[in-house]
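Reviewers of the previous submission asked for a worked example of the structure-prediction workflow described in the proposal, so we include one complete record here. The input consisted solely of the amino acid sequence. No template or homolog information was supplied to the procedure at any stage.
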Amino acid sequence: MWKLALAFFGAAGAGVLAVVAVAGPQPNVTPAAPAFATSHEPPRVGKSPWNETFFPNVPVVTHDGRTLNFYDDLIRDKIVVVNFIYTSCSNICPLVTSRLALVKELLGERFGRDIFFVSITIDPVNDGPDVLRSYARTFRASPGWSFITGTPDNMEIIRTRLGERSDVKAEHRNDIMIGNDRTGTWGRDSAFTNTDILANTILGYDPKLIQPVAAPEAISPDVEAALTSLADQQGTYLFVKACSGCHSIGHGDIVGPDLAHLLARRDHAWLRRFLREPDRMRAERDPLTIELDQRYPGARMPNLGLSNSDIDDLFAYLARQDAALKSDASVSGVRSEKPNVSSH
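From that input alone, the workflow returned the following structure tokens.
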């Protein structure tokens, strides 16, 4: 049941980078991949080799046309979240980017002032500044979030040094790096972590917010009941993890279309196939698929590896949302139900 979990969580490491005492990288030697812990424990401040001797300082170009030096202008003295994307990706890249957009909102005024995002293309030949600008606009990027490209040689240096060494674009790393250059503290996490937890993890890279790690507390009965309730609702968890970054239900278009009353608007057989194999329908030039791609060019539906039972669960969730919209319309206009725990 739900093969999607394998794609989302199997490839992305979680936890804090283990800070080790090693010599700076030698010429023409690829640094060893860092080790990771497996918790969301706040990072510990300490000496680290992850500084100007590690990060390349090669020129890059941002989506808004600025030429910057990678380390000096994007990493030095900042708390940053770094990920890899390419704009023609129709699988994980849009999902990761949409979830980072949700985290950005949770960071509030700290974003762009204390905390910055850097999304690095692994396809610099095709992803020039204009293409990245359109992509950034699709995902509601604001000042503080830089989508960067550059010469193939420089981008190869950056991605290799940061541990992205895949030979096939579709198999690139989809986890995120989080770090504080001032403290030399770096780690990796998954964009598919609960977004409230991920936002707090990022905030934890600020030494002013780091607290001693206390013994774990028991889950309160109220929280436990809420989590059980969420898990018991067919399709809720799947929608929250896979769909909510791009779609609302009754709140208008986000990255992709509003899904309010989707079951009434689309033929169910077509919708089931579209959810199961959108890439094949795209290759077959299905008219409605092409129309959606043209209307939402930055958010083409990815193949999520959904099973028939996954789709049944999503249909059940959408049906509940439609019922909620109908019952609420007379009170305060179109409004969808809110999950009863933190939803992302």
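The first strand starts at residue 15 and ends at 16. We consider this example representative of the routine output the project will generate in years two and three.
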